[in-house]
Amino acid sequence: MRIVRMGDAPAGSDGGTRLMAALAEALAGVPRARVAGAVLISDGQVHDAGALPDLPAPLHLLLTGRATDWDRRLVVENAPAFAIIGEEIRLRLRVEDQGAVPAGGGATIDLMVAMGDGPEQRFAVPLGRTMDVPLTLTHGGQNVITFRVPEAPGELTARNNAAVVSINGVRDRLRVLLVSGEPHAGERTWRNLLKSDPSVDLVHFTILRPPLKQDGVPVDELSLIAFPTRELFLEKIEDFDLIIFDRYRQRGILPPLYLDNVRRYAEEGGAVLLSAGPEFAGPDSLWHSPLARILPARPSARVIEQGFLPRISETGARHPVTAGLADLAPRPPGAEGLPGWGRWLRQIELVEPAGQTVLSGAEDVPLLLLDRVGEGRVALLGSDHAWLWDRGYEGGGP
Question: What CATH number should be reported for the domain holding residue 234?
Fold first, then answer.
C-alpha cells in the first residue's frame, strides 16, 4: 500500500486542490498491473476533477465531515493592482455561506475594513451577493487593505473569513523635488531629463548663495528667492514622489531636523536619490547627516579622477532600472563585451555597500546602488559625470 499526502496550495496561488494531478503522479510510479485500486480521502473540494487519469482499477472516495457541517467565507472577486491616489476605486467581493447553514442566521453580516494601521470601519453587507466596496487610497506606494467578517458559531473554520489586498498607490503625475547644491555642468542635464516627461511635475532649487556667505551685498539688492525649506521639507514633503539631492553639501541651509524628516519620508514610502560629487567625500557630506541611516554605502573620502566605462552588474542585468540600458547605447558593444557608450571621468569611492549594486565603475567600485528602507526606496549614484552622456562625450550614452 502506498500513501500520498497532499498539502495546501502555495500561499498566494489560486491552484486549489489538484487531487487528480496528485493521483496521476502517484500512478506514474507504479506498474499498471500492480494497481489494485485507489482510495481518496477528501472533503469534496477538488479543482481538477476533469483531469481524472485512466485508472486500471476501482477508485473509491471517502468523504470527510458531517452532513451538518457548514462554513462562511469571504471572497475577493476583483481588486486592481494599482490605483490613483485620491480617486475612488471599487473592489468587488462576496460573503457566502456553504453547507448546511443553520436557520435564522440573518440576511446581512458585519464587514470590517481597515487600511494599513488605521482603524477598522464596520459595514452591514448582504450574504451571498456580490457587491462593490468603494475605497480611496490616501498615500503612494503599497496600500494594504484588510477585509474581515466575524466568526460565526459552529462554522468549520475562520481562516477564510478574512482577506488581504495590496494595491499600489500612484499619482496621475509624478512630483519630483530636485535640490542642486551648486551650479555645475550636470545640473541642466537633470533638469532637461525630468522636464522632458510631461507626466513629471518638477520643483527645482539651486543653491546659489549659502546663508553664511559674506560678500557685502545687501540682501534686498539680490535678485534671488529664499529657499522655502520649512514648506518643502516639513509641511509638503509628503506631496513628492521623489526627492533628488544633486551635489548637495551641508552648508547650514537644511538643518538636521529637516534631513531627518527626509529619512522618515523615505522609510514611510517615499523615494530619495542622491547624485554624489566630490562634496560627498568631504567633511560637508550628507553622510555626516541623519540621511546616513538610509544610504546604501558610505564614502571612503577618496575621489577617483580617471576615465572609466560604467558597467552593468550581473544584478543590474536583471533589475528593471538597468535591464534594458545596454540596448539604448549609441553603438553596439565592443571587444571583450565593453559597453557601447562613452566614459565618465570622476567617481566617488563607495565602500560597505548594501542593497543592490546595478552599475559598477572604476576599479569595479559600486557606481549605482539601489536599496529598500522601510516601505520606501533609496538610490545612490557615486558620480556627477552622467552629464557626459548627454553631451555626447566619446559618443555619449543612454
Answer: 3.40.50.880
At 278 the pLDDT is: 93
Q: In the chain, which ranges are continuous DSSP H helix?
A: 19-28, 187-195, 229-230, 256-267, 387-390
Q: 373 with 268: CB under 8 angstroms?
A: no
Residue 247 and residue 337 in one domain = yes
Contact (CB, 8 A) for 295 and 335: no
DSSP 8-state code for residue 338? -
Q: Residue 140: which pLDDT band, with cuts at 50, 70 and 90?
A: confident
Domain count, the chain: 3
CA separation (Å) from 395 to 124, 251, 272, 310, 326? 65, 36, 30, 14, 14
pLDDT of residue 303: 95
Pair (188, 145) in one structural domain:
no
Whole-prediction pTM: 0.63
- The parent domain of residue 135 ranges over 70-170
**In the listed set 63, 88, 121, which residue is the last one of a domain according to the structure?**
63
Cα distance between residue 75 and residue 35, in whole Å? 40
Q: Residues 195-224: pLDDT tens digits?
A: 988 888 999 988 876 656 656 656 555 555
Given strand 271-275, what is the order of strands in its sheet? 200-206, 174-180, 242-246, 271-275, 376-381, 366-373, 356-360, 311-312
Per-residue DSSP letter, 261 = H
pLDDT tens column, 55-79: 888 999 888 878 788 888 898 988 8
Cβ(254)–Cβ(211) below 8 Å: no
Provide the CATH number for the domain around residue 117.
Answer: 2.60.40.10
Average pLDDT value for the chain: 87
What is the structure's pLDDT at 367? 95
